[in-house]
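Write out the bound-state structure for flavin-adenine dinucleotide.
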Amino acid sequence: MSGPEVLVIGGGPAGVSAALELARAGIDVTLCEQGPRLGGAIHRQPDDPTQSVHVPQSHKRRWQALSDALAGSTVKVLCRHMFAGIEATGAVLLEDRIHGRLVTRRPAALVLAMGAIERVAPVPGWQLPGVVTVGGLQVMMKSTGRAPDGDVLIAGSGPLLVALAAQMASLGNAPVAVLERSPRLVSLRVVASLLRAPAYLREAAGYLLTLVRSGTLPQRGVCVTAIAPKDGRLSVTVRDRAGRERRLLVDRVALHDGLLPNSNGTTTGQHGPFIVRAGDCREVLGGTAALADGRLGAQAVLAHLGQTAPANKGPAAIMARERQAQAALNTLFDYSGRDPAQLPDETVICRCEGRTLGQLRSMLSADDPVSAREIKLNGRFGMGSCQGRFCAEWVASFVASQRNGTPPQPSEIVGSRWPVKPVPISAFVTLPPSSPSE
Ligand SMILES: Cc1cc2nc3c(=O)[nH]c(=O)nc-3n(C[C@H](O)[C@H](O)[C@H](O)COP(=O)(O)OP(=O)(O)OC[C@H]3O[C@@H](n4cnc5c(N)ncnc54)[C@H](O)[C@@H]3O)c2cc1C
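---
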């Protein structure tokens, strides 16, 4: 195939859908996925195909349809290839994890479909070993087909809590409790809004039925206020709506407070390729929207390349419907986390660098206003291996709540340099494998 190459980054529904749309238009397209297999967050495939986690039939059918379409397409798939950023000359850097080296490409356009970032609001003790994110635990379960051992507590807010709990119960180790911060989980108004997107209602009903059977329905209006090590386990202090506190002794805690788009620190440089974002990476609207958004991203690329995409209002209409459904769903949950005013100074905010709330408060107590750059370079918030993707949003909103003037944007703390994710130093010095004739 000749003509300009387009790289699509991320092998979830948005990336696969974008790649298929581009291939259908005759574009030379390569789909890069950092992991060993395509699937993304929702359709993650197990390491051993005989050991899979129970997922709704509709999810299975959707992934099968995408896989079949991909197999019959001209899309080139590169798994174990991580997008590392765009360097000054405009070259796209990929970490080839098969050969342990960096490779460069010069595509005409780049579709970034790298999925959402999981949000967890800080609580004292959340940095301890044994505390994980709900999404992280779900990824582990989907990869291994096994539930985690021991007593697991799930807490925070959002539909993912119920999904994980039901999947754990189906694998034979239901969580000891599911603590949902929001005080109400049912609203007739929300159910009415979701009738236009009934897949959510069916999925929720399936999970809730499993939880009824396992006796682990979510406890509403209950939140975690602190986690501490105790006798090799975790002692978790939880508070209910009436302000009553109790302690639970568990082996693992899975926390989650919603999903955020992934701005990923990549900007279009002067010499770089045309960039579009698609799926949860751009706007968190779920799997159905990710498929439609992948097509919209591809159509934007086609327009940039001077190809007229066939007029089709379908994807935009799906996006509008899913946006409405998500907005209705979001009214049920409380992603706010614990009030920062009640968090003690020792609370770790940046888990990568171990930076605490006390250190942030002391920076902000200086007479002169502190810039985002100073928060990052001097305070070291967002300086660790995740480059602020997990703490920048919280730090920016805390700073905004503490001072007048222009608050920093999370993107200023994340920055826009490459590599956008850690790359082993050896990848910079490993040469391409020599060909047999050399
Ligand atoms: C942890 C998690 C669990 C979820 N579980 C559910 C669920 O149970 N039910 C449900 O309905 N919805 C779930 N969702 C939401 C749903 O997965 C998403 O709405 C949908 O999958 C979004 O599709 P996407 O293609 O935009 O992103 P994703 O499906 O997240 O796919 C993004 C892909 O990009 C890859 N990637 C990321 N960075 C790079 C990089 N630098 N280089 C190369 N590849 C990269 C990732 O490995 C991933 O495969 C979950 C979301 C998350 C984050």
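---
The chain has three domains: 5-117+261-307, 120-257, 340-414.
Residues 287-304 form the longest helix (18 residues).
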